[in-house]
Recover the amino acids of this structure.
């Protein structure tokens, strides 16, 4: 697959990602388990799309199927209008346009490589020139100064590590970023910084996101549209407005919204709506 | 503090100026610095981010501070018993029987090579509550009390055969079989899905209410804790920076508490960009 080029003006842009009838089955015989069951959705260029569900809903498996980490049993995946083979192998060009950020920045960075080495690797794989400038630029984009370049992961906080992971994904200038619970291992105050960073980068670079999360508030904050998954199936697809207005149509969606409001003691009136946020100092 | 009861009986837990220090090669890490609170038969939340000392506080009360930690306090009393001077043997008798702990992830806190039932029966035996048949009956009753539909079946299952929510219920059953007076729950629902989280909290809430236990609920989730507890201690850098009544969370005054509330995205009316917590070095003073 050639490097994906933006379409000529006038023609409608193909979606950044289109998934149709995706099915992933693990195991065989009596132990067969359908992790993803006939899932279809598409993400427009520059759009942020959320996949919401509880553990076992198949949301992470969908991302892994897109990147080729698991092999789908059926269905098609296309990136910017180009179908990618289901065989699991992806051409190098694919990885320049699609990158992934994982949940746990403590596990996703090589502990014995400096930030510089971590960021240089994708450049070497794709034989890109100007490594020096690209590395410095990528660090600046995620709000880390030059001083972080020769540090090891253990010398960084969780939020700084996740910034490095995002820089590593962005250094190839992808069009689509797959985010698998990118903030759930972080403290809320650090989560706020990473969410702001992701929002700014999307606006600046025109990226499309697929955000997998169990946290409705995070998805409502960052995404334009979302799909709610349960046991491998899409229960509901909705606009983020419906989520923010707590107007999800499915019973399961309503249940998730109710659960996200926190504990409610039986026999007590509805809890007060969210306490007012602190005005920024 | 508000939990002092009028009758003159000692409070369930009385902590004054608790500190936990770790002398390391690189210097002394002060994990907890001068924490004081009094607990009655109520639900108290301790909230903070990683490294705030909330879990270290819970562990120090249970006498589970790992080496080379040093625990010191002006007062650390449970029901009038001085925990600091208690011999390890006595402490072990207290722990499990009168003070219990529920930890975050049932995958790691249950014994993987024993059935759930055997583990609860063992808890009964070790605490000399019951033996033989009586212990088994007690374990089955306890599994029913944590709303497990088919206690007999679950009794014979191994932890890997349970879902996260079921595992945490089994854990709670084991911890409450001795009918403790004080339960310390450290992130008891953080590893669970949101809908399961609420079921587990509901069970915990009922047990705390019907058995008149004191509960210390340690969590990073300020909103969740406030919806569950009566009052909340907010910890930062090893200190309690603020105590708020759970119902008045919106009126919290400390900039750290307000920053924590503000920096969480909200389902409706999220602020773009999210306010970022500006940490004031004076909070550590």
């Amino acid at each position: 697959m050639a490097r994906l080029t933006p379409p000529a003006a006038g023609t409608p842009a193909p979606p950044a990602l289109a998934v149709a009838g995706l099915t992933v089955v693990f195991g065989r015989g009596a132990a067969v388990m359908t992790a993803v069951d006939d899932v279809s959705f598409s993400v427009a260029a520059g759009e942020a799309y959320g996949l919401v569900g509880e553990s076992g809903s198949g949301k992470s498996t969908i991302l892994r199927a897109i990147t080729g980490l698991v092999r789908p049993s059926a269905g098609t995946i296309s990136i910017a209008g180009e179908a990618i083979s289901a065989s699991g192998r992806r051409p190098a060009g694919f990885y320049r346009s699609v990158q992934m950020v994982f949940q746990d920045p403590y596990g996703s960075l090589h502990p014995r490589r400096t930030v510089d080495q971590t960021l240089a690797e994708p450049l070497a794989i794709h034989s890109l020139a100007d490594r020096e400038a690209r590395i410095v630029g990528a660090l600046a984009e995620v709000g880390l100064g030059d001083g972080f370049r020769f540090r090891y992961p253990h010398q960084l906080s969780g939020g700084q590590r996740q910034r490095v992971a995002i820089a590593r994904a962005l250094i190839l200038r992808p069009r689509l970023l797959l985010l698998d619970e990118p903030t759930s291992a972080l403290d809320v105050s650090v989560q706020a910084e990473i969410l702001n960073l992701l929002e700014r980068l999307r606006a600046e670079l025109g990226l499309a996101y697929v955000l997998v999360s169990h946290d409705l508030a995070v998805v409502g904050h960052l995404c334009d549209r979302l799909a709610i998954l349960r046991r491998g199936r899409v229960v509901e697809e909705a606009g983020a407005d419906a989520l923010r207005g707590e107007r999800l149509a499915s019973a399961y969606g309503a249940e998730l919204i109710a659960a996200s409001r926190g504990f409610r003691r039986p026999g007590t009136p509805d809890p007060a709506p969210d306490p007012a946020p602190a005005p920024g100092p | 503090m508000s939990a002092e009861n009028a009758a003159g009986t000692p409070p369930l837990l009385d902590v004054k100026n608790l500190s936990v220090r770790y002398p390391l090669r690189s210097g002394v890490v002060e994990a907890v610095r001068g924490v004081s609170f009094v607990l009655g038969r109520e639900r108290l939340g301790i909230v903070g981010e990683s490294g705030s000392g909330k879990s270290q506080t819970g562990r120090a009360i249970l006498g589970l501070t790992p080496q080379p930690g040093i625990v010191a306090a002006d007062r650390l009393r449970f029901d009038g018993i001085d925990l600091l001077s208690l011999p390890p043997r006595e402490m072990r008798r207290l722990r499990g029987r009168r003070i219990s702990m529920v930890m975050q992830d049932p995958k790691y806190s249950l014994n993987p090579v024993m059935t759930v039932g055997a583990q609860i029966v063992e808890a009964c035996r070790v605490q000399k509550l019951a033996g033989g048949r009586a212990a088994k009956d007690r374990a089955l009753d306890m599994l029913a009390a944590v709303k497990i539909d088919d206690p007999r079946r679950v009794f014979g299952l191994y932890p890997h055969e349970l879902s996260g929510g079921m595992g945490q219920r089994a854990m709670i059953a084991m911890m409450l079989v001795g009918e403790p007076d004080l339960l310390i729950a450290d992130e008891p629902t953080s590893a669970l899905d949101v809908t399961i989280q609420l079921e587990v909290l509901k069970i915990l809430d009922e047990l705390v209410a019907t058995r008149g236990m004191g509960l210390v609920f340690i969590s990073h989730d300020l909103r969740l804790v406030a919806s569950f507890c009566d009052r909340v201690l907010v910890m930062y850098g090893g200190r309690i920076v603020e105590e708020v009544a759970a119902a008045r969370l919106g009126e919290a005054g400390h900039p750290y508490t307000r920053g924590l509330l503000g920096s969480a995205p909200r389902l409706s009316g999220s602020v773009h960009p999210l306010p970022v917590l500006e940490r004031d070095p004076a909070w550590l003073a």
